[in-house]
Every structure is written in structure tokens, then in C-alpha cells.
Amino acid sequence: MRILITGARGQLGTELMALLEPQRHHQVLGLDLPEHDLTDRDHVLGVISQWAPDLIIHGAAFTAVDLCEEQAEMAYLVNCVATRFVADGARRVGAHVVYVSTDYVFDGTKQGPYVEWDATNPQSVYGRTKLGGEMEIDPGWTIARTSWVCGAHGNNMVKTLLRLAGERDTLSFVDDQIGHPTFAGDLAQMLAKLGVERVPGVFHTTNQGAVSWYEFAQAVFSAAGHDPSRISAITTAELDPPRPAARPANSVLDGFAWRSHGFTPSRDFREPLAEVVRALTA
After folding, report:
1. Is 126 known to be catalytic?
2. Helix (H) or strand (E) run with residue 203 in it
3. From CA 215, how far away is CA 220, in angstroms rounded?
4. Active-site residue (options: 99, 114, 126, 214)
5. What does the alpha-carbon distance between residue 137 and residue 125 come to, in Å, rounded to a whole number?
6. In the chain, at which end, N or C, are there fewer CB atoms within 10 A of the end residue's CB?
7. How far apart are CA 122 and CA 114, in angstroms?
């Protein structure tokens, strides 16, 4: 297949490129800034029309959740309008699209995990714009929602925690926001499977293991050989200063559709966490 990956230099895009480029039966083209501005319609349509991919994995997004509140127009441009341009190009060449979405499309008030058919109700600009991107996706294409993405590349919570472990004696993390940490390498494999097999529909694509941010921080410290008791629990209301964007209290995504298709369940997040910590501390 000819596979086009947007956001190719991000933490997910880097893993997708590393996974797919070495496979000789695929040709892979990665797009990212500054060479490729996906908010430029003519450029997007030109690249897609000329290269004519069979599959587009659209991972590029404005993911700085709090900054989206300040730069709402830019968030809509990147997360909604650029997705419309990618979708337009895909239709012209007959490409299948896998759109990477987020747990932030939900309001976080459900008791229990969210399944793919639950009603969305985003509470932040980021969530609203990612849902807007979902609206640009054709029914025969794929929407892959994920959460709490981290890994060996890019900026993420694991890297932040490892840095803070050497800078501070104690840390505080919220214990009233729960979700599934997802590691970019495992997520890349799930997205590639959905894309190569051209599986239509909405899927929740995360690692397994529901924890609070407090519990996740403790797990990172434990994996790195630090004392997890250095981390204390606080509530979201106690954050100082408070975060500009609302976070879903419940971000747990149930991969019901993934399991129902007979696909192998993803790993518990602690397995890839141990691998990433070893790589980052080697």
C-alpha cells in the first residue's frame, strides 16, 4: 500500500513511520510542519492528488489542550478545517482514512467506561475541535479515539515525570481524573491494522489499565526505580493555578468495538511503560 502519515514527526507519527517504513510491501510518505501546512488547501490537495495514497493515517492535530482555549480559531483550523482538506483529497484518490481522535469528545460524567456508541459532549475547545474533525470523516472510514498518549518521542507525561524526579523531592498529581494511559508504539500498531485492513467505524484504541493521574505518576516512578511515596494525591479543584481547559473526570475508553471484531486486546499500559522507561533511562 501507499501510506501517507500526517504529523509524521510527532510522538505517534514517529512510531508510525518506524513501524511502516521498513516494510518493503508498503511505500510511506510522512507529512509535517514546516514543509507541509495542512491548513493550506491547495497544498494538501496537491500532495494527495500527486502521490495518490491508498491509506491516510491522519494524526496531525493541535493537541495543546490549554493553549486551544486561548487560540480557538487556530484549533478549529488545524483540527477541523485541515481534516476537511485531507478528507477532500482522500475522496479524490479513493484513499481510506484513519482519523486519530480523543477521549476529550466526552464530558467525563458517565459512570463506567465509554463505549464507541456513547453520546459525545466535549467540554473544551480541544474536545470540540476534535469532534469537529470526526464530523469530516466518511462512514466507510475509521475514527480511532485514544487517550493519555505518551512514549519515547515528543513531549509527554512520562518524560515530564522522569525529569521532575531529579528536580523535586515531592510531587502532587490529581486522583479524581481517571483514564487509560496509551503508549504510542502500541497505538501505532492498532492504527496500522485498522488502516491496512480498511476497517470502517469508530474504535477506542488505548492500552489497558484504568488509573488516575496520581496512580499513573506512581507507576512511572516505580518503573524508574524511584520511591512512589514521593507523590501525593490532590483533587482537580486544588490545582494551583487551575487549568484553563476542562478535563474529563472519567476518560476510560472501553475498546468494545475492537474486541467485538475479534482483534487481539491491547497490552496493560505497565508493559510498554517499563519498555519506554528503560529506553529513556539507558
Report:
1. yes
2. strand 201-204
3. 9
4. 126
5. 19
6. C
7. 13
2-35 per-residue burial string, b: 16 or more CB within 10 A, e: under 16: ebbbbbbebbbbbbbbebbbeeeebebbbbbeee
Q: Is residue 118 within 8 Å of residue 74, measured between CB atoms?
A: no
> Using CA atoms, how far apart are residues 274 and 251, in angstroms rounded to an integer?
22
pTM: 0.96
DSSP state of 268: B
Can you tell me the distance from the alpha carbon of 220 to that of 63, in angstroms, rounded to the nearest whole number? 22
pLDDT tens for 106-157 read: 999 999 999 999 999 999 999 999 999 999 999 999 999 999 999 999 889 9
pLDDT digits (tens, 9 = 90+) for 215-224: 999 999 999 9
Is 185 in contact with 124 (CB distance < 8 Å)?
A: no
Report d(CA 262, CA 23) in Å as an integer.
24
- With 0-12 / 13-18 / 19 or more C-beta atoms within 10 angstroms meaning exposed / middle / buried, residue 50 is exposed
- The CATH label, of 3.40.980.10, 3.40.30.10, 3.40.50.720, 1.10.405.10, for the domain at 2-154+180-208+253-268 is 3.40.50.720
**Chain center to CA of 245:** 17
